[in-house]
């Protein structure tokens, strides 16, 4: 993995379940952007508005930067499963 200075990655690795979550979100009419910071995804659906979604594997931890962003008031939603991410938009599992 390449580094851009001390402790800074040039890229970040997405969690293994992110692709499945993105596909599920798009299937219910969401627009999804991969933003990386302060969360993995910026998601929009007309009837629900914008959401910042951080995809995590089960028991995954937020980075120190994500913790600071949440403490500063950024409404980052942590989703470990497809069902959890769909629930944020009032949808049930596929």
Topology at a glance:
Elements: H1 18-27, E1 31-34, E2 41-45, E3 49-55, H2 64-71, E4 76-79, H3 82-87
Parallel strand pairs: 3-4
Antiparallel strand pairs: 1-2, 2-3
How many β strands by DSSP?
A: 4
Output the structural class.
alpha+beta
Do you know the CATH topology? Trna Endonuclease, Chain: A, domain 1
> What's the level 1 CATH class?
Alpha Beta
User: What's the number of structural domains?
Assistant: 1
CATH architecture grouping? 3-Layer(aba) Sandwich
Radius of gyration: 14 Å
Span between termini? 35 Å
| Mean pLDDT across every amino acid position | 85
Helix content: 25-40%
* Tally of DSSP helical segments: 3
* Overall geometric form: globular
Question: DSSP strand (E) fraction?
Answer: 15-25%
Strand adjacency order, main sheet:
1-2-3-4
**Describe the biggest sheet?**
4 strands, mixed
In the predicted model, the low-confidence regions spanning at least 5 consecutive residues are: 1-11
The succession of helices and strands, N to C, reads: HEEEHEH
């Amino acid at each position: 993995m390449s580094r851009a200075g001390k402790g800074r990655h040039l890229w970040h690795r997405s969690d293994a379940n992110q692709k499945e979550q993105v596909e599920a979100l798009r299937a219910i009419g969401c627009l999804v952007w991969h933003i990386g910071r302060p969360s993995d995804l910026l998601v929009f659906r007309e009837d629900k508005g914008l959401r910042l979604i951080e995809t995590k594997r089960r028991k995954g931890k937020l980075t120190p930067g994500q913790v600071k962003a949440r403490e500063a008031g950024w409404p980052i939603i942590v989703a470990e499963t497809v069902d959890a991410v769909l629930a944020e938009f009032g949808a049930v599992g596929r």
